[in-house]
Amino acid sequence: MPVSDLAETGHGYAVARENFSVEGGHLHIGGLQLAALVRDIGSPAYFYDGDVIRRTYRGLAEALRGFAHLHYSIKANPAPAIVRLLLSEGAGVEIASGGEYRAARAAGARPDQIIFAGPGKRSVEIEEVISGGVGEIHLEGYHEIDRIAGIARRLGRRLKAALRINPVATAQAGAMRMGGKPTAFGFDEECLADAVTAVTKVPEIDLVGIHVYAGTQILDVDALVRQWRHAIHLAAQVASLHAKPLETIDLGGGLGIPYYAGEKPLDLTRLTADVAALSRDIRANPLLAGARVIVEPGRYLVGPAGVYVAEVNAVKTSRGTRFIVTDGGMHHHLAASGNLGQIIKRDYPIVAPARMSETAVAPATVVGPLCTPLDTLAREALLPQLDVGDLIAVLQSGAYGLTASPAGFLSHPPPAEVLVESGSFTVL
Ligand SMILES: Cc1ncc(COP(=O)(O)O)c(C=O)c1O
Questions:
Q1: Which helix or strand (DSSP H or E) is residue 27 part of?
Q2: Given a cut of 80, is residue 343 above it in pLDDT?
Q3: What is the rounded average pLDDT of the residues 364-393?
Q4: Does the pLDDT of residue 204 top 70, yes or no?
Q5: What value does the mean pLDDT take over residues 57-63?
Q6: Starting at the edge strand that comes first in sequence, how are the strands of the sheet with 26-29 ordered?
Q7: Per-residue model confidence (pLDDT) at position 171
Q8: In this predicted structure, what is the pLDDT of residue 342?
Q9: What is the DSSP string of 45-69?
Q10: Angular region, 360: left φ>0, alpha ψ -120 to 50, beta rest
């Protein structure tokens, strides 16, 4: 490939144009020039484009209209302004800790909009959530039935709960599988009858639904729908064992976004067509017909909206490899460094946001300031000539970015987080 074509063909540049806009060689997000924002705010920093989050939410809600309601999985990005934005669009939330419960309430979530999952809920968290009010708690094992019932009894409350089910392996999909094998998440599908008996014996808990979350980063509609169909089949079994209609069927999150060259976004048109058959299955079963179907995405809703920006601090060559050393790294963005459980370490899309029309030179390795080779943000990045003071921007960084990073490692300052929307910005 001629060097002059590299910038044009670099995956990062295509993703930048897809999500944001490029004007006069500059990447713009939320209607503002990114380099100008960095001059105001400083570096390193995360920028989230509120317009992109709204557009993404509306696109998915529309694709699933008449089939499912969306609950934002706060763990993907708990920034209060983002939670507030998604609530304002009509989303509910899915939480997995007392901290996320407080974030949801502070952002304006009503108790009935909140569902609480997670395999290690502490008694204080359960108590806080029951006292403050919650839509549903998702039971992850026999231990939780007793613990939650005991706390509800002491508080004189009854609460709604769903059984989280760890499905059999054949129903699995996703880059990181969280079901279909021995896991800490939910009741094994093989023990369903026993689990239903155990929950329904407890007067404080009203079993109203099921929850299946089996894997993340699913880009294949067939795999996603196969998993959802299986979850609906499990819902039918639970309703029949319980001899009572279900109120909710939570199909989990896991909707993927393209990170690497060659990956294609989830095909929403096909998804809409395929869920029509699932809707018919649900309506045909009197025990499921009145149930509210929930999908709880995190990554899909906020991932494409986020950009992590760092400034070049040094450029050097070692044994023929060009190294770009920046002031940001894995302490702020573990996932981009490939150390957040990814099996394959490939580059997130990366661009030089103030040099978008310049051609790339030889592939570069972009590293952070930490004293470990793990602190690598990109390995074969197609970037133009960069010098000290230039910027790099890691795209697709709105989900599992700062919140999933070891921010205390090596005691560097935290990055700023900024929401940019329709030409104005707020530092979070
Ligand atoms: C129970 C539950 N729901 C939703 C999510 C969000 O997943 P994703 O970001 O893949 O949509 C997770 C992620 O771990 C989860 O554990």
A1: strand 26-29
A2: no
A3: 95
A4: yes
A5: 98
A6: 21-23, 26-29, 32-33
A7: 56
A8: 74
A9: EEEEEHHHHHHHHHHHHHHTTTT-E
A10: beta
Cα of 117 vs centre of ligand 1, distance in Å, is: 10
Distance, CA of 408 to CA of 174 (rounded, Å): 30
pLDDT at 177: 59
CA nearest neighbour of 259 among 292, 216, 288, 213 = 216
pLDDT band, very low/low/confident/very high, at 346 (cuts 50, 70, 90):
confident
Which ligand 1 atom is at minimum distance from the Cα of 255? Answer: 11
Phi, psi at 218, each rounded to 5°: -95, 120
> Ligand 1 centre from 26 Cα, in Å?
34
* Backbone torsions φ then ψ of 270, nearest 5 degrees: -65, -35
Angle between helices 268-284 and 221-242 (to 10 degrees): 20
Question: Which protein residues touch ligand 1 with a CB less than 6 Å away?
Answer: 73, 75-76, 94, 117, 213, 216, 252-255, 296-300, 399
Neighbours of 313 (CB within 10 A): 16
pLDDT(359) > 80 = yes
Tokens 């990005």 locate to 77
26: CB partners within 8 A, 6+ apart? 33, 34, 35, 353, 354, 356
382 vs 6: CA distance, rounded Å = 6
Local structure of residue 377 (DSSP, 8 states): E
Which residues touch 209 (CB under 8 Å, ≥6 apart)? 136, 160, 161, 162, 163, 235, 246, 247, 248, 249, 250, 291
Q: Which amino acid is at 150?
A: G
Identify any residues that bridge with 421 across adjacent strands, giving them in sequence order. 424
Residue with tokens 């670099």: 10
* Ligand 1 atom with least separation from CA of 300: 11
To 10 degrees, what angle do helices 98-106 and 80-88 make?
Answer: 60
pLDDT at 63: 98
Quote the ligand 1 centre to 226 CA distance (angstroms): 18
Cα 177 to ligand 1 centroid, rounded to whole Å: 11
Alpha carbon distances (Å) from 280 to 67, 157, 274, 286: 10, 36, 11, 12
* Residue ranges with strand state E in 333-402: 350-351, 364-367, 376-381, 391-394
Provide the sign of the torsion angle of the four alpha carbons 88, 91, 92, 96, taken in this order.
negative
Strands, DSSP E only, in 212-281?
215-216, 248-250
pLDDT score of 323 more than 70: yes
Instruction: Say if CB 354 and CB 391 are below 8 A apart.
Output: yes
At 6 the pLDDT is 42
